[in-house]
C-alpha cells in the first residue's frame, strides 16, 4: 500500500525526482563502465516510470485504493449511498412487519414484499460476490451465481405479488400459518 501511495504522489512524477535520479547516476564514486551502465539503466527506468503516458502496470497500481476517497473526475457507483439505502430498508422492516400484521391490506403487503425481497437480494448478492470469486471458481461460475441471485429474487417478488393480488395476501397468509400451529382458525 505504501508503494502505491508513493507512486500516486506528485513528488514521484516531478522533475525533482528525475534530477535526483540523474545525480545518483553520475556520482564519481562508480567506475566509468559501471557508471555508463548505471546511467543507461536509470535513464530507461526514468523513461518508463516518468513518461506522460503511463503504462498499464502503473495504471493498475495507481487505481488501487484502500480508502473511500474519490476524485471528482472519477465516475462510478458510490457504495456508501447503497449502504445507507440498505440500512434504511432494514430499519423500515422493523415497524412495517407488525403494522402489516395488525392491519393487513394490499399497500402494506406490497411494501412488505418489496422490502423483504430487496433485503434478501442484497444479502444473497453479498454472499455470491464474497464467496463465489473468480479467482477460485473461474470466470463463469461467479456470473452464474449472480444470475441465480437475480432469478431467485425475481421469482420471490413475483410469487409474493401473486399471493397479494390473487390470494389472501402476505399478512393473512402468515396469520393462517400461525392459526394452523396453534390449532385455531383465523
UniProtKB/TrEMBL annotation:
Its main location: mitochondrion. GO terms for molecular function: heme binding; metal ion binding; ubiquinone binding. Pfam families: CybS (PF05328). It is a multi-pass membrane protein. InterPro entries: CybS (IPR007992), SQR/QFR_C/D (IPR034804). Keywords: Electron transport, Heme, Iron, Membrane, Metal-binding, Mitochondrion, Mitochondrion inner membrane, Transit peptide, Transmembrane, Transmembrane helix, Transport, Tricarboxylic acid cycle. Coiled coil: none annotated. It comes from the Eukaryota. SUPFAM superfamilies: Fumarate reductase respiratory complex transmembrane subunits. One of its GO terms (biological process) is tricarboxylic acid cycle. It is found in: Mitochondrion inner membrane. The keyword Transport applies. Heme b binds at residue 119. A ubiquinone binds at residue 131. The chain crosses the membrane at residues 144-164. GO terms for cellular component: mitochondrial inner membrane. Membrane-anchoring subunit of succinate dehydrogenase (SDH) that is involved in complex II of the mitochondrial electron transport chain and is responsible for transferring electrons from succinate to ubiquinone (coenzyme Q). Belongs to the CybS family. This is Succinate dehydrogenase [ubiquinone] cytochrome b small subunit. It comes from Euphydryas editha (Edith's checkerspot).
Amino acid at each position: 500500500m505504501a508503494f502505491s501511495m508513493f507512486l500516486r504522489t506528485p513528488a514521484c512524477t516531478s522533475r525533482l525526482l528525475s534530477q535526483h535520479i540523474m545525480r545518483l547516476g553520475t556520482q564519481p564514486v562508480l567506475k566509468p563502465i559501471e557508471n555508463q551502465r548505471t546511467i543507461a539503466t536509470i535513464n530507461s527506468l526514468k523513461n518508463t516510470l516518468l513518461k506522460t503516458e503511463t503504462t498499464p502496470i502503473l495504471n493498475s497500481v495507481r487505481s488501487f485504493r484502500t480508502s473511500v476517497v474519490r476524485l471528482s473526475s472519477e465516475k462510478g457507483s458510490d457504495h456508501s449511498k447503497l449502504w445507507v439505502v440498505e440500512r434504511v430498508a432494514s430499519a423500515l422492516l422493523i415497524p412495517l412487519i407488525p403494522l402489516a400484521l395488525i392491519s393487513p391490506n394490499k399497500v402494506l403487503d406490497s411494501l412488505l414484499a418489496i422490502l423483504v425481497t430487496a433485503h434478501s437480494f442484497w444479502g444473497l448478492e453479498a454472499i455470491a460476490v464474497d464467496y463465489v470469486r473468480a479467482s477460485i471458481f473461474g470466470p463463469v461460475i461467479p456470473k452464474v451465481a449472480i444470475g441465480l441471485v437475480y432469478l431467485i429474487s425475481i421469482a420471490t417478488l413475483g410469487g409474493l405479488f401473486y399471493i397479494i393480488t390473487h390470494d389472501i395476501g402476505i399478512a393473512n397468509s402468515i396469520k393462517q400459518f400461525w392459526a394452523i400451529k396453534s390449532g385455531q382458525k383465523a
